[in-house]
Amino acid sequence: MNHHIIDAIPFQPELADLARRLRVKENSPYLADLQRLRDEAECIARPKAVYKVAFIDARNGDDVIVDGVTLTSRVLRVNLDHVQRVFPYVATCGVELDAWAHAQDDMLFRYWADVIKEMAVRVAMQVAFEAMTARYGLGKTAVMSPGSLADWPLPQQQPLFTILGDVKAMIGVELTDSFLMIPNKSVSGLRFTTEEDFASCQLCPRENCPGRRMPYDDTLYDRKYRFPVSSI
Ligand code: SF4
Questions:
Q1: What's the total number of domains in the chain?
Q2: What is the arithmetic mean of pLDDT over 166-193?
Q3: Which of 51, 82, 89, 121 has its CA 20 to 30 A from that of 131?
Q4: Range of the domain at 149
């Protein structure tokens, strides 16, 4: 049994942090509303995550076969050339907080609730990554997520979920027909050890992205990924 489900994750967002993110000033009449939402969220939220250790069976062209499931991406295949085990994961704000956010009937409060959900999924992912690192003694790692690059498009969520098993039963996250996750504040990916720094952002030319973690390198694909592939 290689699955690890983490479903007792404390979530206690700081009011000051929330107020700063949402630009609600200390003397704002809205601060009491924000405190109420924060308090409700703290009671209701059950952020969760699941991850597993999975093993590479084979590599073939742009395919890499993990626990019997084929993932297709040139970039992923090359990034996994020197590892034998990987860590697929899904983390979520949780269905409880998602339902609470949907029940907000004021547009402003619904937006605030969405930001709170975003904070909750970040907490879930951080806890899951810390648990993975401690359990498996991981050093430097990188992640790739389906949909972050044209090379590994969103439909690849399906095989990633297949590797993990019944993600809905484990943590309540399901895929829509268009491969989006519900709750929408959920994240998925494959974590792997690496000698070199890597982030998909290096291969993504999108401008002004608030989530960018590394600069775009317009020569990286040609230098590292565009070459005749081998197989084992
Ligand atoms: S730059 Fe933005 S859109 Fe592109 S991979 Fe990074 S986070 Fe995603």
A1: 1
A2: 98
A3: 82
A4: 3-195
